[in-house]
Amino acid sequence: xxxxxxxxxxxxxxxxxxxxxxxxxxxxxxxxxxxxxxxxxxxxxxxxxxxxxxxxxxxxxxxxxxxxxxxxxxxxxxxxxxxxxxxxxxxxxxxxxxxxxxxxxxxxxxxxxxxxxxxxxxxxxxxxxxxxxxxxxxxxxxxxxxxxxxxxxxxxxxxxxxxxxxxxxxxxxxxxxxxxxxxxxxxxxxxxxxxxxxxxxxxxxxxxxxxxxxxxxxxxxxxxxxxxxxxxxxxxxxxxxxxxxxxxxxxxxxxxxxxxxxxxxxxxxxxxxxxxxxxxxxxxxxxxxxxxxxxxxxxxxxxxxxxxxxxxxxxxxxxxxxxxxxxxxxxxxxxxxxxxxxxx
Length: 344
Known about the structure:
Elements: E1 2-6, H1 9-20, H2 25-33, E2 54-59, E3 63-68, E4 74-86, E5 99-113, E6 117-124, E7 131-142, E8 145-152, H3 158-161, E9 183-192, E10 197-204, E11 212-221, E12 226-235, E13 242-243, E14 251-256, E15 262-267, E16 274-279, E17 286-287, E18 295-301, E19 304-309, H4 317-321
Antiparallel strand pairs: 1-2, 2-3, 3-4, 4-5, 5-6, 6-7, 7-8, 8-9, 9-10, 11-12, 12-13, 14-15, 15-16, 16-17, 18-19
């Protein structure tokens, strides 16, 4: 990593050198008559305080780094970009659309303050929506005990905790879809026996009832060259999962309703991608939106449903079923361990 050390020592040395240059015999004689400053007691001239040193550097692993000499203060700026190309080579009827997708575009701002406090702020501009992936502060009493507050990864799922830049395949395995992506809460974590044993104990907002998780399962018919996705529900305490929707159209992006008694999801069963609501007490899904264009993404906030709608475009039903599926995940360090700014 290339580094540049910035100090004021050079400027002081230059000033002292100019002051010490003899400029004439009279000044030399006058200086000889006055008592030498060097002979004064040391108490009158306390030693100069050490000048602060700022180290600036950059590397592919750490990004741009500005830190103090002892590492007590550090600021890092780096980014994660991911592009996907989707091409249907056997689509002779041209029913599907070949395209590029910007999956992830995340500037990552992280650092250390006063040695004992780490922070991380990671927005995501990929896809059609902007979201905050990480926003937390970590107070470190010691290597064995740290308290992290804010929006972060829950300590569940080894593959999910690995960074996106370091996973072995383009997509994670199906079990990673069963664990929480991001949540707001507090997490106590640390390393014992010099890292031989790690632990985490956390409290998060979780699902509305705290007992169930919803997810989607996609089934593809290779012979027919088509597939569909259905919404499933599974108890977090163990037990069998059950299918909530079953339709030839794809049902995706299931979200809990604020009251915990139903779900919102996207489906193309009306010909365009729209928002539907399903009550967990029974009954058929009910349409929430009927817009003349596709709803591409859905987020549910307390007391309201927000929608992101893409531009009006003509697409075949097969193209709608093949719409790019987006997931919000992130990853910084190539490890399942907790994200911490590297220390030099």
